[in-house]
TrEMBL record, chains A, B, C, D, E, F:
UniProtKB keywords: Exonuclease, Hydrolase, Nuclease
Chain ranges of the HD domain: 165-282
GO biological process: rRNA 3'-end processing
Signal peptide residue numbers: none
Species of the source: Weissella diestrammenae
Keyword Transferase part of the UniProt annotation: no
UniProt cross-references to InterPro entries, sorted A to Z: HD/PDEase_dom (IPR003607), HD_domain (IPR006674), YhaM_exoribonuc/phosphodiest (IPR050798)
Short name of any one Pfam family annotated for the protein: HD
PANTHER family per record: 3'-5' EXORIBONUCLEASE YHAM (PTHR37294)
Domain of life the protein comes from: Bacteria
UniProt entry tagged with the keyword Hydrolase: yes
Protein name from the UniProt record: HD domain-containing protein
Length: 317, 317, 317, 317, 317, 317
């Protein structure tokens, strides 16, 4: 597969010979008892699944999810959805591509660009307590912040999604601060940058993302709260000063409702605004995901991330 | 009452002699059978209630809610809340102030300023169908749009609140359009300006605002939809063209959920954004209302507009 | 297929050669990669699905959903449900049956009979405003009213179901008017006839019924409200007279609860009665549908239209 | 009070001297420590409350709720609601009226009339099992069935309300049976007559109605079910015959939803119909109650029985 | 299959020749039209499903669910779940095992042991009314109480589960009585023993358990209430004595909430305690079921009985 | 007031001269404009409110909530509820009683007794990680644990209620561990002792208890989680070891449902058991509170702590 030709570019019945990222592989058995492989691969352009109808006992065992593999396959269509029929799938050998990052969907910004914008934002956090905590934690989880996705699936589920989502909210926050008097911009920016940082513990990483055990048992909201408390300790900040209590509240409350996992409802204006901007950014991203798979003038499939709505894509802009 | 001295400026036990707007007046009977007056008056600075302990049979009948009255009273305090004890209350006579508008709370912008900003916004609605409908209806309800409140109570319940709330959303919409690609700015602006216009039929007017009968039986969401349909007819626009259907949908869906009175959920990206910006602006206003009555470092009273939350006002900015 | 022998009459293993209505056809691929056809056909007696295991590239393309087709097949049983195994399926040729209406399930009344009963009912609407609106709209959508189904699936999902359902409610309404004093019979009848008329815009038509774009984005409740407003305009009726406001309210409120899509709850007695009669008639129809597929002395399958209840059919009448 | 002059007939400031039914009496203390009586009395026309401002220690003790008393009072108005100011209240003496029934609101039908209609209905229950059970229980609770109210407050809260409500549903049931084929009229009539009969155990009686202990701890739905089971035992009917199981189900399910106190949801068509007719009749009665206290062209007070709706009474009939 | 070797003991690819209990058998058709058998069998160690790929017309008809069958099969694995591929399945012949009870999962206690513990408990019910009712009903349903499961599936779905679950709650009840003063131990024990006894009517029996018609239409809560009422009649106990009303209440309320099928909420302390102990015991059993199928250090499958939670099994004890 | 005579001992009309704890005091104004004091006082036996009808400007200012005061008053009854009419209320002087603790309701156990039982329990926590964390935190908050209430109002709202409630759950836990195999007793005991310890930060203290700012903005569930994290840091325990993650989970999940403020649902068996024992103990206490104010054979007032149920107190034990 040449650099320029991506999975999305192949037509039905066209042959594909090249390298892709292995996302999932299972050995299954047909009704008549024959084993086959169910495979999902991806590159930057899309994710696609399919079958390899004959397989040997050890074929799947030799392949590792999250690594680059070489494939030979043909592009097909099944119930309006693209699929592959695989002829061959094997690990790459010496000299062949082997960097998974080259085959991962990425967000609209490079880590470098995000980092620069975040650095500039830090200067707008004029409250010294909040600035120290944000700097401390962004330093501690620097790499993860710019490479983790913001979710296992749904909105911002791409490498770098966590940083990009946080940055998008910070941008919206700046617009709100400019438009409305009496919004505490330092508090809003500090919490925008930290609110989802617990995901670097909740999720396993950018490739083949799953929930970790602390992720499932504690959840990213409390996980970041704990990190803030430890940072305060490290920085000799008074845990029960108003600044510290308020920052923890804004972040704990960012899911907006108890039933969505926040242990407290937003009781401070900036907590409420953060929650609403988080939802706004996540929804826009979810709509864009759904629209990408919908034809103009039609309704898309029911979207789990949009509360099972089947959204409409207008014909004319 | 001199121009400069407002109701909010009087201290406890201080005498008040001046002109105010009459908001409510009832004749009641004490436990021991004596009639008295329960009165609410207001000026630009605040609304305040109190009693006039002796009254005659016809005193209340001579006074009209929504008009300017002359009062003589003393400022008191009851359970932490300010009240008045009235000695005299009478209609104004020739030569005395009589323009209710001079005593009404108003929003942060003058009608004139809002009008100019709206006029500028209209040019950003590049889709001709939407622009024609918006111009037609803003023209038809021009005066009401800039003088009606956006609610009977709660957020934006001041004269001009409707225009100001619509404008605030339009400003947020512009920030969103700038930040996110592929948002239809024309659609978002057009619907931001029209979404609450049904309130000019739902509410009785800027003074002593109540719900009208069509307001209660039909509601502002369907009332504006009907006006859009009549406008389309007047303008010879095809009611079932995608432009018309989409505009009606975005406005019908702006309460976001069926249980909040929208007959359809947002199925178009811009419908979802409008709903979220509407909620964001309304919530900020509700927080500001609650914060205005809360001391720094304390929790306020439970706020109906904020889902019974008792909000916190941080000490330090 | 002779006139007298319907799909429901065939036994397992019996061969069928005849004409049916094509409801759905899809080309699919077996696990081993071979294409086949998944087909649904129907006549007045039932709807039935099945496979044609060998097919050619263009076979499906030559057939059109909603038209009469000739089939050769055998009746089978799969997991207690009837199915067909198709040997042949082709368009009809000259001289063969080709009227879809001859193969469509129909309600218990003919359009002609319904029309006569409706005409008689119109005279019972003594209020001139309501009578003019009802006459205007039943005239405008005359054909659709008596041929559309009342739903895509569920209750009254047969051709003519819309008219029949409306008529059934009108009959119940007459019983209620007779039994209870002080019920406004004109209002109840007028709204019974109009309440679901928006479905002639919400649904695509009697054959292969789907939701239209305005159906999904606006919904039948608001669609008929808009038509009433336009009719009032046409008839020079005052849109904000009590008669017009009340009629719109009763129809807007007929789903009874906001969460079921009514933008207002019933605030007028007749609105509440209409809602309850609508539900009563729909439920009886849904029970009859479920009972038709249930053996006496047994519980049926879970019924979506009955809130997932699995209903019981008593043995003895 | 002459026979012809009822409480509803007195004007504001008019004196009342006559006999009424005592509904409630409490000794209370004013803010300044003086005891007074809070009294509610009624006759057939209305219920009315008020105060007697001076009282002695034993005055209230000498009066008994549920008995006829002699009063001297004046009719007043307080916050738009009628009230009485009592001058004297005393037990009646020999020769004065003393039959509470003469002062109780009653339904639109006399017990005698209801009884005749019920007797006629019994012949329409053709299933012998159901007929025997209904006859047995209506015989056992004959007097209560025609004199108890159907509720402590809300709909049908008048003496005889139980019988009248049951009869109203039976009438609706007959209309439904006539209109829809395949409805089991015997089952529907039998259960219409029995469905609320548990209220003769749940409630204390027609005067000063309260909930009994079994009423609160078991509830009328299970109380009637138990009576049916005991009746079946007495009549040597097989408790687990389909007839008996079905009858118990229809009655147990008549509140329609678990959260409204039915231990099972309606799984039989007639159970569903009974539930809907029960709701329809109760709602019409609740609307009529609310409308009786609402002026034409206005909205009434929020009605608890109507889920807090504030209903509208149209001007013109 | 030797006594010692149970289904759970076989490895993947190992052959099984022996006797098992037949739980379910269906004839199905492959996509290519060939009939096959879908079979579920069980012994004390586990339940397992699989296919027999060739079958004759009458093979399934000769086999009876709930009986012992002889099988020849091989153990396989499909999507991480164990399955069987059957070569042969036939009824047992003379001299071969034929007692289903030998192949049924059973609880941790034998019927005999449970019976002895229950007998001892009866002496702790010092209130004579309650003791007589409990003795009467446990006598009447003696065998079923110790052999029925407590559910069709979910918690305590093994033979003897009903008695064991009741006993477990009675044990918890004793701990509570010991720890808290003023808990009525007689009432709590009596109702613990009776609370689920209606399941002997609601369920079909210990083998191939299904819901009976009275089970579905009346439910076990009302079914046991009816039996208590009949017992009281038989024992000449006053149905409306406080003892009888209280006992019926405690049992009717044991699901704790109306939406879970109790017609009344717990209004007596012991009713509330019974409800909570019932839930505690059921939840512990459901967790144990889920933990049995989960690897240490991992999350299990979503459990319907635990409200769709995916539970975690810690590594170290 | 002699030591032996408590507030509960006084009869109606009896004079009281003695010392009590001042719980609340407000200056209010009668309808006729005269100021008066609304006062609540308490001793170990009960809390009681009342008025002092004449007061001076500074009288209330001289009195401090939470301190002992001298009163002269008379016991009265108002609407079935006891009240006081105060003649005098003043601060105590030198030599008079002044220890608030002598006038506070206390739980059934002394701090000393609770401490001994807790110390014995600690040895049953065999897991060293959990034991060290529990010892560390009980040491750090030693005094508060045995003197704080478990709530501002509702269940266990007495001094020492926190320790007593925790101990009660630990006792129930021991019964459960004894009855059920495979319950981790160490985990259950450790979390029973810690689960509500966050209340020592959430609440202001044993006297005149209110919520603190961190209490309202963070809540006791997250507050104790943070303390556990800091303790782990102090004790050099690995924050992400299974032991630490599991302990935090069990405590975070102890409210059982997200909507009750737990940020995660119980996913570990012991978490579920802790939640259910917490609810059981709290409910028994709430029932006992309600029963203490209810007459035998009657229903009590609606209890907020019991979800607005009006509970029944049986006559006979």
């Amino acid at each position: 597969m040449s650099d320029s030709k991506q999975l999305r570019d192949y037509q039905v019945d066209e042959n594909i010979n090249g390298f892709v990222l292995l996302k999932q592989i299972d050995t299954r058995v047909t009704n008549s008892g024959k084993p086959y492989l169910a495979i999902t691969v991806a590159d930057r352009s899309m994710e696609i699944s399919g079958m390899k109808w004959d397989t040997t006992e050890n074929e799947a065992a030799a392949l590792k999810v999250g690594e680059v593999v070489a494939i030979s396959a043909v592009r097909q269509e099944y119930r309006d959805k693209p699929q592959l029929k695989f002829f061959e799938i094997r690990p790459t050998t010496l000299g062949e591509p082997n960097n998974p990052a080259d085959y991962m969907a990425s967000g609209p910004m490079k880590a470098k660009e995000m980092e620069e914008e975040v650095n500039a934002l830090l200067f707008q956090i004029v409250n010294p307590t909040w600035q120290r905590v944000v700097r401390f934690l962004l330093n501690q989880y620097h790499e993860q912040f710019f490479t983790y996705p913001a979710a296992k699936s749904n909105h911002h589920a791409f490498a770098g999604g966590l940083g990009f989502h946080s940055l998008s909210i910070a941008r919206l926050a700046q617009s709100v601060v400019k438009q409305y008097p009496n919004v505490d911009g330092s508090l809003l920016l500090a919490s925008a940058l930290l609110h989802d940082l617990g995901k670097v513990i909740e999720l396993s990483g950018p490739i083949a993302t799953t929930y970790t055990i602390p992720g499932n048992l504690i959840g990213h909201i409390v996980l970041i709260d704990e990190q803030i408390v430890l940072a305060a300790q490290e920085l000799n900040l008074d845990l029960f000063s108003e600044d510290m209590v308020v920052l923890r509240h804004v972040i704990l409350a960012h899911h907006g409702q108890l039933e969505y996992g926040s242990p407290v409802r937003p009781l401070i204006k900036e907590a409420n605004i953060l929650h609403q901007l988080d939802e706004l950014d996540a929804n826009i991203q979810s709509f864009d995901n759904a629209l990408a798979e919908t034809n103009p003038g039609e309704f898309g499939a029911k979207s789990w991330a949009l509360d099972n709505r089947s959204i409409y894509k207008p014909t004319e802009k």
